[in-house]
Amino acid sequence: MRAVLRSPDLTVRMLAALADPVRLDIVRQLSLGEDVCACDFDVHPKVAQPTVSHHLRVLREAGVVRSERRGIYIHYTLEPAAVDRLEALVRSLRPPVPVPATTGAGTRLALARPTSTDAP
């Protein structure tokens, strides 16, 4: 797992970091839009604060979250570039959809990947 978290591919590092249930819960909490102090994460009740800090470090090193020190506290937010990368990955996995294309001989169907403006 450590080798995967050190991969030069940012998407691989992000997915490896998100594969842990505690880290995924942390990201879900951050997805609510507010920054969260490291001491205030509401994750699995049996997870001690040092373990939460470890998971936050893994997420930060994978580029999933960003941190900001405020006095003695560290606050975390989602890294927007990571969210964009994850959205792009999901869009790239959608199968091509048929779209009409016109040629001199008439209309035919072509395949195209969905874009961010296409309906899900």
Explain what this protein looks like in three dimensions:
The chain is α+β, with helices and mostly antiparallel strands and about 120 residues long. It has a single domain (about 1-120), classed as Orthogonal Bundle (Arc Repressor Mutant, subunit A), CATH 1.10.10.10. Helix content is about 40%, strand content about 25%. The protein contains 5 helices and 5 strands. It has helices spanning about 1-5, 10-20, 20-30, 50-60, 80-95, and strands at about 35, 65-70, 75-80, 95-105, 105-110. The chain has a 3-stranded antiparallel sheet with strand order 1-3-2. It has a two-stranded antiparallel sheet with strand order 4-5. Strand 2 and strand 3 (about 75-80) form a beta hairpin.
Secondary structure tally, helices = 5
Number of domains: 1
Unreliable stretches covering 5 or more consecutive residues: none
Could you tell me how far the N terminus lies from the C terminus, measured between alpha carbons in angstroms? 33 Å
By secondary-structure content and strand pairing, the structural class works out as alpha+beta
Q: Major sheet: order of its strands? A: 1-3-2
Radius of gyration over all CA atoms, rounded: 20 Å
Overall geometry: elongated
Average pLDDT over all residues: 81
Number of strands: 5
Which band does the percent of strand residues land in? 15-25%
Helix content: 40-55%
